[in-house]
Amino acid sequence: MDHLLIRISPGLLVCVAILTTSLVVTTATAAALGEGCTYIIDQPPYSYLGQGKQTGLLYELLGQMAMRAGMSSCISSMPFKRVAMQVKARPNSLGVIWRQPEIEQSYTWVLKLFEEPVILVARYDTDVDIFSIEVARNLRVGVVLGSPAEVVARRLGFQHIDVSNTVTDNAWKLQHGRIDAWLALPSVISAAQRQIGSDLSAVRFGLPIENTSMYLSCAAACKDVDINRWKEAALAMKKDGTYARIVDKYAMKISTQNGGDFIAPK
Predict the structure, then answer these.
(1) Most buried residue, 38, 132, 155, 234, by most Cβ within 10 Å?
(2) Burial class (CB in 10 A: 0-12, 13-18, 19+), 32
(3) Buried b (16+ CB within 10 A) or exposed e, 85-115
(4) What is the pTM of this model?
(5) Where in the chain is the domain with CATH 3.40.190.10?
(6) Each residue's pLDDT tens digit, 178-231
(7) Is CATH 3.40.190.10 what the domain over 21-115+213-251 is classified as, yes or no?
(8) pLDDT class of 251 with cuts at 50, 70, 90
(9) Of 3.40.190.10, 3.40.50.1390, 3.60.130.10, 3.40.30.10, which CATH number belongs to 116-210?
């Protein structure tokens, strides 16, 4: 059995923007004030409700960053595809976007947050080959609609792509044999396994297919977004250790015997 450990390297993460609870204003209020919103991914481990309070890696990092940058912004958590739509439609807003060749010209890439591999996983008790792209192209492979994994699967010519709306749908489908393999990021896989009452011991990891990076971004033509203030706030957090402390709270390192080490949030 592969043993998994996961950790985020401080060099891989930098930031995005969200305010702590005391600084958060509603979308309607921000619009009235002419302020842009920050759109983030409504998915563990990035942003989620924990014990009745909003929490998560991005939520904490960006809240701290926004305070240091002297920004006041609303926060809106939603599926990734909607995040992308909102950022494009609102040039004075920021959002969390995975940077891929297909959308390189669609956004201004403000700050790199972290990098993870898109990877195939299969159930541990199956012998499905997830170490060859040639073989994997003919498997029933689950992805989330609009995710970086779906983009990679279509670019590489996967023939049987099963699209779901949530990561837990894919975790459930894999568990019950509805798909042969699941293409996703390690942090997403880990969180979804916990959400369905399972863990990483129930899956086995194939070889990483492609690295993808998450960025704090704005529309291709940013409007009234002070990029330098965000960068300066991120740098200050790294220098005084705040960044590392927040990352450590959510960090894990995945090591597998056949796939190497993966660096990702929990």
Answers:
(1) 38
(2) exposed
(3) ebbbebbebbbbbbbbeebeeebbebbbbbb
(4) 0.79
(5) 21-115+213-251, 116-210
(6) 999 999 998 889 889 999 999 989 999 997 899 999 999 999 988 888 889 999
(7) yes
(8) low
(9) 3.40.190.10
